[in-house]
Structure formats: structure tokens, C-alpha cells
Amino acid sequence: MLPPSPAPPPAIRLLVPANIRHNSGGNVYNAALAQGLEQLGTEVTIQPVGGDWPVASKEERRRLAGLLMAGTSARIQAAALAGVPANTVTIVDGLVASGAPGAIEAAAAGGQAPWVLLHMPLDEHPDLESRALRAAAGVICTSGSAAAEISRRHGLAGVRAALPGTERARVAGGSEPPRLLAVAALLPNKDQLVLLGALARLRDLEWTAALVGSATADPDYARQVAAAVDRYGLGSRVQLPGELTGEALEQQWDAADLSLLVSKVEAFGMAVTESVARGVPVIVRAGTGAVEALGLGAETAQGRPEGAAPALPGAVVELGDRGDTGDGQSGEADPEPLAALLRSWLTDPGLRAEWRRRALAGRELLPGWDATARQVLGYVAPKAWPGGHSSQPPADGE
Description:
This protein is α/β, with parallel strands linked by helices. It folds into two domains: 11-165 and 368-380, 3-Layer(aba) Sandwich (Rossmann fold); 179-362, Rossmann fold (3-Layer(aba) Sandwich), CATH 3.40.50.2000. The protein contains 15 helices and twelve strands. It has helices spanning 25-39, 58-68, 74-81, 94-97, 101-109, 126-135, 144-154, 192-200, 219-231, 246-255, 270-276, 290-296, 336-347, 349-362, 369-380; strands at residues 11-17, 44-49, 88-93, 115-118, 138-141, 160-161, 179-183, 208-212, 238-242, 258-261, 282-285, 314-317. The longest helix has 15 residues, at 25-39.
């Protein structure tokens, strides 16, 4: 007897925030996931949801509630006209869901509970986040560290993780003198100011740098970054080209010898794996999800003593509080550890060569977006995708 055929894949409806217009990690993840799902034969509708998410007006929350109770794709509409139950799964971006828990609860009460795709825990509104996640059909986080934090914070069981994939990319050629690259919107959380503070301590060495990212996401902070470049006398060394895409961004990557992601909080940090995919080592900040991203490109312990840590394609730096400096900036991170690590890398050719070797090896270990799509489909529709992973992975990301 032949085994039963898997159920047809459901249509996927992905509701995303319309107010995040810069090239954020969440936007990149959502678009790449949709493309990966379509390549698996799944119909996908991406629907931007208007609102100042995660804080939205009563009318915007009401509109979301209506969207959750009604499908929009041609497939769903055709099924309704034919009197056939619509085979669809709705996934709501966590930024939207956490801003309108009442809409998620109403959909659940009506038998149409959506899944929530959470890119980063919402520190400002934990009570709203808890309500939304508890009402959801399930929760998928984009990193193991975020899944662990959500499980701990809200006492939730069964929180899944689906790590971002990585596009194949050409190997970076590098520059002389060495070129440093930070790809992130100019936002307080990305902490470009601490990076500039570190670079200011290295003016006796040869290097150039580019801080590539949107200057419109937070204009006030972008002005602070530009002012710091001038204050430190780094105008001839540090470029602020704004947000770049396509070949312009690829040119920046091709020139890079080292990239940095020193965010205060990071659920994953796709810039890390995008860097390793080009053979460019990375420095990331300790205590953030970027450490997990860096670990995806780590060499295994084969050939090293038992219990030895994997060889990272870069390094993790601890940035402690620099205390009261008398300049009104007490409580900010101390840039000195980052400056010391960069000085070691810039002055030690052997260290640069070793980090480069690890990054070139690590690029072969990175999963693609097809793996992310299979995992998500395995969570939301295990019967339709028996090759997926419907079981709960450890929330600590192991």
C-alpha cells in the first residue's frame, strides 16, 4: 500500500508593518522567506499593514482585526466562492502583532488564530507582547537567543526558531589600507557612536571605514553620528554614504576587510552572515544575538583539543560601561576594548590572515533561505510539509 500523499501546501498570508521603510533585517527576512516559500510551491501574499507599529491608533488596530478575519489572495477568494474551506495560514510580523493584541485575541476567538513571526522581543511593551503571543497559533522567532528570551520572559512553551538564511555572494577583494565596514541603519541601538569612539583612538594607524545605513530612520541620531565624525577629525577616513542597495552595496562589501556589528541589542544580525558569506570576518558585541549569527560560520572542533571552542570567523568584544567621564555621557559603552581589538587586528598580519581564513571556511557552512522556508513551513503546516521540522527545537538555540 502506498503511503498517503501529503496534504496540499497552504497559502501563506504574511502581514508586515508598512511603517518600516528602511532596509531593516526584518524587512529582508520577510521578503526572503516569502521568496523561499514560493520556491517550495506555496502561494504567498505579503500584505503591508498601515500603522505606527508597534504603537498604532484604535482605527489601525480595528483594521488589522478585520484583515485577520478575511483572506486577501486570489486563492482564498476562489475557495470562498466555491464553498471550499480556505486552506491558508496567516503569519503576522511581531511588530504588528505586539501592537494590537486585541486583534490577535479576537481572531483566535473566531477560530482564525494567526502565527506570529517575532524578529526581536519588544522591550517597551512586554504586557502587550505577552497577550499577543499567548493568543497566537504559534510563535516563530528568528534566532535561538530570541526564542529563549521569549520563553523565559512570558513563560511560553513551544516557541520555535527559524534562523535567517544567507544568499551566496562573491568573495570580497579587500583594500589597502584595510577597510572597515558597518552595515546598519544609523540608529541608537546600532551604536555607531561607540564605533566612532574606538576609531578615534586609532588615528595613528592606516585604515578607512564606511558606515552604510539609512540616515532617515532616526534623523536626530544620524546628525549625532555625522557630528562625531567631524568632532573626532575622521572626515577623511570615515564615509557615511547612507542606505545602499544592489551594486553600490556590493562595491562596499567587495572593498571590506573587516565588518562590525556593535548593536546594544540584536536578535540575530543578518549583516554578520552576509559578511561571512563574502569571506569578510566580523567583530560583534557580546551579549547579543549577533554572537549566534557569528557562530553559524564557526569551524567545528575537529582537529582541536576536546572541549575547545569553535574557531569564530572574527571575534566577540565585551563593551562595558565607561562610567562617569565628566562629559555628561556617563552610562555609555566604553569604546576602549573595541579599539584595543581593532588595534591588534590592524597591527598583526598573522591575525588578519587567520580571521580571513576562518571567514572563507565559514562561508561554506552558512544555510540558505531555502532551509529557513522549509523550517517555517514545517512549523505552520507539518502535514503538508513532512520534510519540515514540526518538533520544537531547544529554545536556547542549540
